[in-house]
Amino acid sequence: MKLKGGFTNYGEVIGVIMLDTRFPRPAGDIGNARSYDFPVRYKTVQGALPVRIMGDDPDPELLEPFIAAARELEREGVKGITTSCGFLAPFQRKLAEAVNIPVFASALLQVPVASALIGKNRTVGVFTERRQHMNDRHFQGVGWSQKDLRIHVQGMKPDAKFPQVYIGNQTELDFDVLRAEMEDMTRDFLRDCPDAGAIVLECTNMCPFSTFIANISGLPVFDINTMINLFMNASRPRVFEQA
């Protein structure tokens, strides 16, 4: 068997471009390597604080550092690149054009898939921390518009602890408090959107709570982890033994 080299490290198929954060990341969060059954490679963009991303658009001055990080990950041998914040959706096209490997900058890429699965008479819920900042520029950044798909954007309550931890970049969190907020958010969504058919979590920090959301809603829940695992299955197809 002959092996081809060219890199220093091997086996890290997924590269993750991380914001510059210090908040805790429980299992299930994209920034916790124990969230995956395979090794991932991380690259932090220094100065990419959550407050510079969580607005009507990400800070445009961060685009070039993100492109540089994507190119570094490509040189280091990863086969696909994602990011740690769904609000980076407006960077999707530029990041994808900057490298020669697939890029999926935001879980919002899955909304058209979820919509197609449930049909035109049902609604896809998009869960986000700050509803007022999520707009069609984020959606158009990943190739679709709220004018074309039936969606309902569900945000958190103004006094919720969740945004205080993650957008505020705090160094401690209470998992049980955040779980209760996510469960309340799910119930609010079901009340506000009686024709709900699926949920997409824009926020990568919501992933540790996907199971609780699914249990309460009874709906399929898509997040950045479902997308990462989809890419892994596509990049490394299962080998079938023939009888």
Protein described:
With 243 residues, the protein is of the alpha/beta class. It folds into two domains: 14-106 and 227-235, Rossmann fold, CATH 3.40.50.1860; 107-223, Rossmann fold (3-Layer(aba) Sandwich). The chain has nine helices and eight strands. The chain has helices at 50-53, 63-75, 92-98, 111-118, 136-141, 161-166, 175-192, 210-217, 224-235, and strands at residues 14-18, 40-44, 80-83, 103-104, 123-127, 151-154, 196-201, 221-222. The strands form two sheets. The protein has a four-stranded parallel sheet with strand order 2-1-3-4, with helices on both faces. The chain has a four-stranded parallel sheet with strand order 6-5-7-8. Strand 5, helix 5 (136-141) and strand 6 (151-154) form a beta-alpha-beta unit. It is globular and about 60 Å long. The two termini are 25 Å apart. The model has no long low-confidence stretch (mean pLDDT 95).
